[in-house]
Amino acid sequence: MTGHDDQLGRGAALVMAAKALSVAFAADAAKRDAERILPVAEMTELRSAGLQVARVPMAYGGPDLSFRELAELMIWLGAGDPNIAQAVQPHFVLLDMLRLFGTEAQKQRYFGDVVGGHIITNAYAERGTGIVGQITTALKPDGDGYRLNGTKFYCTGSLVAEQFYVLIGTEDDGRTIAIVPGDREGLTVHDDWDAMGQRTTASGTVEFDNVAVAADEVIAAETAWSERSHIGALAQMLHAAIDAGIAKAALADAIDYAQNRARPVLESGVTRASDDPYVMSAIGEMRVAASVAEVMVLNAGEALDRAVAAQTAGDSTDVVTKLLEEASIAVAEAKIASTQSSLAVSETMFTVTGASASLSTQNLDRHWRNARTHTIHDPVSYKYKIVGDYLLNGRPPPLGTRY
Asked: What is the pTM of this model?
């Protein structure tokens, strides 16, 4: 078997493992949501299946999944439990940041940690700043290393991760990142995430109080915010995959309920809800919406594959830049479609299930709550705007890690 064939085989096997875990995770997803049970055991299963290594290069012991395969893997995780999918979303972004910006020693170290089972999650966002995205967390020189101070919110997966990659402001108003172990003195994780949806993403506030950071724990990623790369599009594609997974799960629950539990209304003239033409129509409408989102996310993954392949092959800057721009646009379109689909399907399902489906014991409303909570990460209006601007005026998407 050639290296390429081996890569394809390992990628397909990992996607199949994600599909199997999706079924297992879905079994108790409603209970975990209702009782806010963090998916600690499920994350252990995910590690045992090796999903955390998906984007680790083969040279460092990973399967080096394509972006399309990674998108499919995340859709399945999102369908099983979008909380678990979101808990690993930042981890996959970090793996590609390492590929682009890490030194050889850092790649050996951190890819090795991941192959050993580590999850490296983010400590990015902050509250209380004047504008969303502003960063006050800072590093100060301290001998041969640094001291880190700041407070981060929305630290997805922080309660089930071994390490954090921390977004840091630099003196010249730039940004960089440092990777810090979760057990480092001065680092405190608070279990304080309290949202209406995505309740078990194992997220919390993370405080850094004079935390020691070695010089070789700082990743020279400053250009991630000033030069075009695939990192922003990758992060957004993974979010879109989670939303497509939510739509997939809501559709599956709607079909199951209509087939096995829903009662037909008198006006339908049928004895089974599944024979009601309006129920059939609603299910068909939901299926189309869910399928469109899934296909567009997979297409976005393929666009990322084309761009990064051209970059790896050493194609001209103009060719690579154009492909990266096209990938960002494809991802923006997928983000729009998956947002619309996850919200529409998780709401429309109640038109086919009947009043009993609204009982808290069913907890079917978690699909909409998860979709609504997750889709407000980034304003979709701006996705429409950059797509329209690109088509009308040829203006590329903004630089940075959000596009």
From this structure: 0.95
